[in-house]
Specification:
This protein is about 35% helix and about 35% strand. The chain is built from four helices and four strands; from the N terminus they run ααααββββ. Strand 3 and strand 4 form a beta hairpin. The N terminus is likely disordered.
């Protein structure tokens, strides 16, 4: 059983003639990777994927994205109901909150609108 737990990342350093050198460097890299915060693009991709998995609706775009004290906050636009013509399709904006590591902690629909209709009462997209 212990071999199964130790196979990730440490196998090559033990088989290498420079095992100690690789262990030091590999250990630092692994701890850095564990403690490393995701980049904004990684957070954005994770948020889109997690929202799609939960709602069953694919994200069309991200209209708002910011880092907060508690992690990340995004507003993601999704297609809720396809109609013909496409300008009459129903869209929705979802407020999505993520922790500092990019894991979704909550979401809610904040508005619903027709794709072809401008939203005059929300200046700046918020």
């Amino acid at each position: 059983m212990s071999n199964t737990k130790n196979t990730s990342g440490s196998q090559s350093s033990h088989n290498s003639p420079k095992g100690k050198e690789n262990d030091t460097r590999g250990g630092a890299d692994n701890s850095t990777a564990d403690a490393r915060r995701p980049t904004p693009m990684e957070v954005l991709r994770q948020a889109r994927a997690q929202l799609a998995e939960l709602t069953g609706m694919a994200a069309e775009n991200v209209s708002s994205f910011e880092q907060t004290e508690d992690g990340w906050s995004l507003e993601i636009e999704v297609l809720e109901l396809a109609r013909v013509p496409d300008t009459m399709s129903l869209m929705a904006s979802y407020q999505v909150d993520l922790d500092p590591e990019g894991q979704l902690t909550g979401y809610r629909r904040v508005r619903r609108y027709e794709r072809g209709r401008a939203d005059a009462h929300r200046p700046g997209g918020r």
